[in-house]
Amino acid sequence: MENPVIVGVTGASGSILASKTVDALLELNIPTILVASNPARMVWQIEMSESFGESLERWRENSGFSHYAIGDLQAPIASGTFPGRGMVIVPGSMATVSAIVNGISDNLIRRSADVCLKERRPLVIVPRESPLNGIHLSNLAALDSFGTSIVTADPPYYLPIKTLEDSASFTAQRVLLALNVIEELPEQFRYGDNESQQDRIK
To answer: pLDDT tens digit string along 105-115?
Structure first.
């Protein structure tokens, strides 16, 4: 079995991004480990029609899925000896970004990110904040200098995408690309590869 990807979900807006990312990983039969903060669960209840518990039940039908509590610092993923494939934090709150930059590993998401950095494994952050102040920008720049991929959840305006679900699915595929799970974006998410795109720009 392949090494798993860790998905950390923090308390920023954009729960659909996490849901689509987990869905995309499991559809490719990539073992997936989920960790969600308490604020993430609260935001999920506000933003999603499917409750967090219902999502867990659905994902647990896949044998490659597992879940750890945010405070479980004895979980295997808290150790560099665990053979993780990489990690994405989606959505990524600015509090979590700040903690990672400053080496604060006081919960399982932050510790897992620290492990990825020290073991030179792929770490992807999907930041969710607007407008960004100087502190946010300097912290994201610091993460970039450490080798982290910053994948923004911007809608692909050049594609014939009309819904938040479509846009979130696009972002999920960009995450998989940054994690080296896929080698290229699916055809429907590549500019110029869709007939409706060609028709629209004529």
So the answer is: 999 999 999 99
pLDDT band at 192 (very low <50, low <70, confident <90, very high): confident
Pair type for strands 65-69 and 5-9? unpaired
Range of the domain at 163: 5-201
The CATH number given to whatever domain includes residue 135 is 3.40.50.1950
Task: Identify the three-state secondary structure at position 125.
Answer: strand
**Residue of 73, 106, 109 whose CA lies nearest to 90:** 109
The three-class DSSP label of residue 78 is helix
Is residue 96 within 8 A of residue 122, CB to CB? The reply is no
Matching residue, tokens 């590549």: 190
pLDDT tens for each residue of 146-164: 999 999 999 999 998 899 9
Domain count along the chain:
1
Count of C-beta atoms within a 10 Å radius of residue 66 = 18
State which H helix or E strand residue 142 sits in.
Answer: helix 134-145
Strand arrangement of the beta sheet that strand 123-127 belongs to: 65-69, 32-36, 5-9, 86-92, 123-127, 149-150
Residue tagged 């912290």 (tokens):
139
Concatenate the DSSP letters of all residues of 154-199 into one string.
---TTS---SHHHHHHHHHHHHHHHTTSSSS--GGGSTT-SHHHHH
